[in-house]
Amino acid sequence: MTAHLDTDIAIGGLFEEENSAEIVNARISADANPRLAEVMAVLTRHLHAAIKEIEPTHEEWFKAIEFLTQTGQMCTDWRQEYILLSDVLGATMLVDAINHRRPKGATPNTILGPFYVANAPHYENGANICLDGKGEPTLVSGRVLDTTGRPIAGATLDIWQTNDDGFYDVQQKGVQPDYNLRGLFTTDADGYYAFRTVKPRHYPIPADGPVGKLLGDLGRHPNRAAHLHFIVTANGYDQVITHIFTPDCQYLHEDTVFGVKKELIAEFTTESDPAVAERYDLSVPFLAVNWDFVLTPL
Ligand code: BEZ
Ligand code: FE
């Protein structure tokens, strides 16, 4: 009998169901980038554990491969279906939470989303960013502060939201005016900002691809709770990528990308002060949100 068929001879390194992940991970070279080696070892361990728990058939495994293939094929310069997958699985919010642990009282981050556009028009405080005239006029104003309550002058607020039909301008080129409901504002010497907009409404994330189909197959809706987006930046402070949510949205407790944090739910009050209305070119009554952003030092 030849040596390689001798069952008494220990054969190391061969793949078996019981030691599958360890065998795969043992192939990682000692010269590999240590972070890559760590990440791949953990992912392999969890992947093998999931497969052992699920015990997929070949057909089921191929369906998973097809899903990932279609997700990749859906990606273009304008559409990132993998980020959408990360969003609806809560992975985007988890990575963000791990990377932005802020002290109590500081404005928390939430999801950036795919509809941010750099270099929006820079407006004077009080300007109206709603260019299509649709929706409920709303005055948003407040201050940018540090964690001790001191105002931050010269902070930049980069703002974007959907129109009253639930679409961002970039989703409706030629239908909405360019830069509709987008704008850059700078806080004054007392840290104040103000702008006119319209009350945001809920809207579905792009659901015409494999991620939308997955949501449907799981009996999940694709809707985001109504929100305004902000990126607040100031020299010497940690940039905040965040939202303000409306308190009365039907999806507040079931945002499809898990972006809602209780600290980000604002009050939208109905106001009738004629002096304020005149100053911001509003008719009474109008909606108002008073909202401060609190930044942490770098
Ligand atoms: C958004 O808020 O714009 C958004 C976030 C995640 C996925 C799709 C849209
Ligand atoms: Fe959004």
UniProtKB/TrEMBL annotation:
Keywords: Dioxygenase, Iron, Metal-binding, Oxidoreductase. SUPFAM superfamilies: Aromatic compound dioxygenase. InterPro entries: 1_2-HQD/HQD, Catechol_dOase_N, Intradiol_dOase_C, Intradiol_dOase_core, Intradiol_RC_Dioxygenase. Its cofactor is Fe(3+). It holds the Pfam family Dioxygenase_C. PANTHER family: DIOXYGENASE, PUTATIVE (AFU_ORTHOLOGUE AFUA_2G02910)-RELATED, INTRADIOL RING-CLEAVAGE DIOXYGENASES DOMAIN-CONTAINING PROTEIN-RELATED. This is 6-chlorohydroxyquinol-1,2-dioxygenase. It comes from Pseudomonas ogarae (strain DSM 112162 / CECT 30235 / F113).
